[in-house]
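We treat protein structure as text, and this decision shapes the records that our systems exchange. We quote a single record here, exactly as it is kept in our systems:
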Amino acid sequence: MLPAGAPIIELDRVRKLYEVGGSRLLGVLGLGRDHRLHAVDRVSMAVDRGSITAIVGESGCGKSTLARMLTLYEAPSGGDYRFQGKPIEAWRRDHARAFRRQVQMVFQDPYESLDPRYTVRETCLEPLTIQGLGDTAAAREAMVLDALGFVGLTPPGDYLGRYPHELSGGQRQRVAIARAVVLRPGVIVADEPVSMLDVSLRAEVLNLFLDWRRLHGATIILITHDLAIARHVSDRAAVMYLGEVVESGPTEEVIGDPKHPYTQALVAAVPIPDPFNRRPRTTLAGDVPSAAHLPKGCRFAGRCPAVMAACRVTHPEEVDVGGGRKVRCLLYP
């Protein structure tokens, strides 16, 4: 039994490394024949039950890899991952089916996440069948109808016999969410769930996650590159750069008063819908380093406007700056 107030998810220096080598292309790039791609590196965080946590960063920073590790689609290469206080290795070895029932994932692309050969009924019934839920076929059908109604596909009976190609993009993503919530999971990991939807639909879909948290006390982990979305829905935010979390804390504080130079640059790049309200822009020089050929010091040093000589030789650790906030930067000793 998880003690009262204990985090439902705990990560301690979790890593995901991919072995790469033997490629002619890598030789051309000067990476040799035996290198490791640091997709996620030394990520530590605690996720409270019933909270909404946003993982923020630009493409290629490791957000989606972290999401796949949280849902056991990928195994961590190192570090300690605990779910409900129990090591993830024990869940994977002895209770994989129970874990899947409690932790569900909503993928980014509704055009690829649904099997084109399955009707909506079959898509949403499959998790119930695998988990052995519902005493009768009628009971399982009722659970599917309830999930479809929750995501706004009404009347739900009209959608049961449809195939993915008969649905719009927004309807497909709603079916994907229905497939996840039909099991009544306690944790939902949503990987860029609205990035492929029209702007007019994004708020509606995001509100489904807020409603699920409100109705069931669920924990939501939202992967996004959009700071406005993170600010709208999440309680806490973790900003990733090149596989690492460089800043974390309450969302309003991280976005309203960013400490790390990278977070400051992300916030400065968000457009302000007022032509008379201008703010200084932070322009980042250079390119993101290769995750297979990391720099010696701070990974952001080559682009940082506040870089110091020490930044190029010393790799910073996370520093607690108070108020539940952590920053990985040598500016905060």
Q: What stands out?
A: The chain has one domain: 9-328. The chain has a mean pLDDT of 90. The domain at 9-328 is CATH 3.40.50.300 (Rossmann fold). The first helix runs from residue 24 to 28.
